[in-house]
Design the sequence.
């Protein structure tokens, strides 16, 4: 049995036979096709060309034109889009992506968690395809959060020590069990700074097991302000609770974290309230959870912004948004939900 559709080779044969003056019946017989197929094909490929010697236009069949139309028409084949005319679903997705800063995966998990009902039910890949095709007005791939980079990092073969921090505890001295993320209370610490000319800094903590986030607004990126903020946390929750909650803190070698004694020792007692460890220089991957959380913060406070202009309530909102954000890591659960399942 012949192919159902004409091939590109057959179209060139039709063009050659047609220009030689053969009839439709003869062309159909030569290709083993019915006359209706040839009639339809000639209609599809008819185009106007210009004679190079007389400069007169004439109409003839062109195989290239017919093939181009056939390929284009083939793109319309297949099932209709599942989204159809479900404008309520489209509007909801658009709002969650642009206003609530959710990823497509997080939007679908939100719908599942709160049992929202729409005419349309799609998977993550289908939703991404709709965005790529421009089916959601005002939303494109550039509107979405940056995709995670999955490139494999090289192993650290040469241990380096920060020149301005050679006496404090290195991450190499930290208990190896912390890497397993099986125990709550091991935190990573960093600062998020304002743009040039701006004031205000965010001191951020990320818990390694649950990815719980704590954000505090401080005046400047200085040792005094960082230590003072940590002292205020201890004053608010008490020494014993602080020691249980913040078992270890891991940070980089920034100058704002170099007051190790001020961070480690309690203001009320001459005893340690936590253990502080410093990463290797230029190894932000050793605080990977912290860096990923900073990307979430930047969805609400973009780089270059003046952090001092954001209110404490707004910072609190960002913290709550992060802690209630559905995470693929936890099968759609948020950090708060995942922590509620733990038994301490």
Sequence:
């Amino acid at each position: 049995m012949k192919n159902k559709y004409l091939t590109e080779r057959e179209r060139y044969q039709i063009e050659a036979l047609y220009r030689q003056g053969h009839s439709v019946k003869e062309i159909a017989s030569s290709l083993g096709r019915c006359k209706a197929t040839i009639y339809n094909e000639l209609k599809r490929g008819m185009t106007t060309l210009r004679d190079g010697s007389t400069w007169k236009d004439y109409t003839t069949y062109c195989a290239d034109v017919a093939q181009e139309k056939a390929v284009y028409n083939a793109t319309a084949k297949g099932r209709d889009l599942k989204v159809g005319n479900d404008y309520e679903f489209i509007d909801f997705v658009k709002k969650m992506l642009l206003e609530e800063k959710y990823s497509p995966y997080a939007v679908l998990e939100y719908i599942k968690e709160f049992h929202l009902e729409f005419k349309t039910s799609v998977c993550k890949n289908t939703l991404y395809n709709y965005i790529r095709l421009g089916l959601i007005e005002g939303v494109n791939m550039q509107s979405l959060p940056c995709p995670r980079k999955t490139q494999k990092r090289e192993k650290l073969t040469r241990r380096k020590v920060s020149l301005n921090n050679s006496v404090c505890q290195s991450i190499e001295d930290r208990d190896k069990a912390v890497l397993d993320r099986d125990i709550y209370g091991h935190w990573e610490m960093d600062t998020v700074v304002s743009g040039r000319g701006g004031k205000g800094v965010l001191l951020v903590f990320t818990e390694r097991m649950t990815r719980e986030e704590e954000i505090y607004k401080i005046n400047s990126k200085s040792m005094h302000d960082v230590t003072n903020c940590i002292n205020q946390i201890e004053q608010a929750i008490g020494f014993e609770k602080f020691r249980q909650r913040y078992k270890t803190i891991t940070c980089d070698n920034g100058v704002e974290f170099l007051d190790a004694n001020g961070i480690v020792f309690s203001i009320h007692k001459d005893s340690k309230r936590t253990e502080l460890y410093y990463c290797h220089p230029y190894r932000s991957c050793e605080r990977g959870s912290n860096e990923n959380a900073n990307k979430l913060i930047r969805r609400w406070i973009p780089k270059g912004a003046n952090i001092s202009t954001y209110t404490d309530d707004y910072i609190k909102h960002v913290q709550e948004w992060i802690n209630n954000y559905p995470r693929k890591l936890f099968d759609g659960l948020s950090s708060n939900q995942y922590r509620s399942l733990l038994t301490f």
